[in-house]
Amino acid sequence: MSDRQAKIRELAAAALAEDRVDYFIGWKQGINPSEAIPAFVRSADEVDQLIWNPLSHHNLTTFLKRKMPDPPNARIGVCVKGCDSRTLVALLQEELVDKERIYVVGVPCDGVIDRRRVEKEFADEVVDISFSGDVVTATTRCGDSKEFAKGDMTFDHCNTCRYPNPVYADDMAADPVPEPEDRTPMWGSIEEFEALSPAEKDAKLADAFETCIRCFACIHACPVCVCWDQCVNRCRRPALVGQRVDTKENLMFQMVHMFHVAGRCPSCGACDRACPVEIPLYLLHRKMNKELYDMLGFEPGVSLEEKPAFQTFKLDDPFGEH
Amino acid sequence: MKFLAQDKLQAFLGHLAGESRVVAPVKGDDGVVLFRPWSPGTEVELDVLLPKQSAKEFVLRQSETYLRYGYAMEGEAAAQVDDSHEAKVVLDDPAERKAAQDTAVTAHAALVVEPVNDAPAQVIFGLRPCDARGFVQMDNVFGGYGGFYFDPYYNAKREATTLVAVTCRDPRSTCFCTSVQGGPASTEGADVLFTQVEGGFAVEALTDKGETLLASAEFVDAAQAQVLYAETVKETAEARVDAAFDLEGIQEHLRANIEDPGWHDLAMRCISCGTCTYVCPNCYCFNITDEMVEGRGERIRTWDNCFNPSYTLETSGHNPRDTKSNRFRNRFSHKFWYYPEKYDSLLCSGCGRCITHCPTRIDIREVLSVMGSERTAVPATTGEEA
What is the pTM of this model? Predict the structure, then answer.
């Protein structure tokens, strides 16, 4: 693990020292060692703040999308995990990011910790999370400490991940980690959802979206939501999505997002992790991914040469029947 | 000072619920604690210090209906205006609908407008002193301070609301109430203050409204030991909140640093969402829209926020805060510079939710430590504003 951290620092320092990038985006420790946050490094002598550990959940590709770079024409170095690289590939497929302006460091990933799941094991504030092999130790402000098996605390989408190694990178921070032999997607709880009756589905969705506060963290954190600052969900001419905050309108807003990023979104879960009220948003996107896979055999962002599902048309594409 | 035994809490809330709506921190099935309407038998969650959202929503509603409107044909009563939550599509067949609309227009149908201002009595139980102070700071804006606008919607709800605060026992590392003129046992804004002591709560009424609440039979006079215990809880909590930044000269520094290039660095990891403002007990910006379906609709007020890229979009198409760092700067400047200038108070009560809920953990304490002090940097040359 620390090898990858050392290599990230080395590659970042070289890119900055050789003036190949204006700034380099990686991860650093947050307020305390229980969390990692995005780091923006501007010079080679600042690379020691960069870290890599199972808390490095942020999909940093978000900071490459339209109107995020500062200045707008910045040359940027960025670290990507497997899922992050798929969102980057999706952006590159549609030329939504200029390949010439980015330098990509790929980081093989062993799964990322769902910090909120750890948090719920305590009433007190978690201030430290450390790792030793497959054991995760969490400590609170009052000094309570508990150990967990890492596999119990990783995100759902990590447990079903089939692309732990970046599918696109200029340089790699380590040799690839072992990949699953069978790459057939696993859809987890989606199949349970599909088995429900329409009324049960309605109830489940209503329950999930009732608490949405329409803060838009999901779409802003989403690396492939590129019209984020010109969003139809806020637009009043035409007024396609109501501004009232209630279950129905909230769901409508999320459905718009789901359809709009379909074919680009590999359900990396960035939306989900950004949500302040913990709505399991990635399930919507995973459902869409399942539809795309079942109908077209398409997986978003796995190959630079491929065109996204909704950017191509073939006469033998199935229409609704499959 | 009164005492309420732990096992009497449900009975007390039950009494309140008989007369008004009770709102309290409740843990959902997903483990998320939020202020939710309380019903008898529901457990009140006080071990988790702060619910994910502040209690602001129950006074400054996230969606507030100002009025309902619609067209009524001659002879029809105003009752035709739909009073359900949403405007209904009256006719299913598009052709019929079109015909009905055409008739309405040719017959010069009367516009029926029905003002709405629902403000049922409610008690918000279990909010922390920082959340209670948040209301005081919003009162300045909506309450007609110094002859400014008096908002009937906010004030009707504020008037109908009783705030029962609970002293913080274990402040979080992100709490900074003591740096913004508050504290874990601050009484400002609250009607009653509960302090958790052995076996229950030491309770003090702070206003007449609060006094009425304590008339309930569940309360007994607090013993001297309980009073002393409560004092210790308050002092211990106070000592646990770290000093975060210095308020001295902060307005002047923020004004002087408005073009400082440091804003760009601080805003780099901001994704320009509105989470910090929506979980904030003090942020009050809103938008007004007409939500209309088939000629009937509602005029509503919904929360808006200064990170929203269209927040300052002008009719001409010009947007004075078109970049992320410009929008970022506004939130801190508003809270610690323009608002204090106008109302002689801060627009922050130090709950720290903006830190813990920020998707990238932007820390208001860090921002204010840097930009709220004297900077020696040269003026911006890399300005996006250029």
Answer: 0.89
**Residues of chain B numbered 140-159 and touching chain A (CB < 8 Å):** none
Rounded to the nearest angstrom, the minimum Cα separation between A226 and chain B is 12
Predicted confidence band at B83 (pLDDT cuts at 50, 70, 90)?
Answer: very low
Instruction: Tell me the per-residue pLDDT of B263-290, one tens digit each, with 9 for 90 and over.
Output: 999 999 999 999 999 999 999 999 999 9
Instruction: Verify whether the Cβ–Cβ distance A276 to B62 is below 8 Å.
Output: no
Cα separation, A302 vs A264, whole angstroms: 10
List of residues 6+ apart from B253 with CB closer than 8 A: B371, B372, B373, B374, B375
ipTM of the shown complex: 0.93
Q: Which of residues 69-108 of B touch A (CB under 8 A)?
A: 85-86
Distances (CA, A) of B270 to A227, B176, B333, B377: 17, 21, 16, 22
Query: What are the tens digits of pLDDT across the range A179-200?
Result: 988 888 888 889 899 999 999 9
d(CA B36, CA A277): 13
Query: What sign does the dihedral A194-A198-A201-A205 (CA atoms) show?
Result: positive
Residue of chain B whose alpha carbon sits nearest to that of A25: B269
DSSP summary character for residue B326: H
The verdict on B289 touching A (C-beta cutoff 8 Å) is yes
For residue A142, the chain B residues in CB contact (below 8 A) are 170
Closest-CA distance, A314 to chain B, in angstroms, reads 34
Task: Name the maximum alpha-carbon separation found in chain B.
Answer: 78
Output the pLDDT for position A2: 76
Domain extents in chain B: 2-62+119-240, 250-371
Token digits for A106?
A: 């790929």
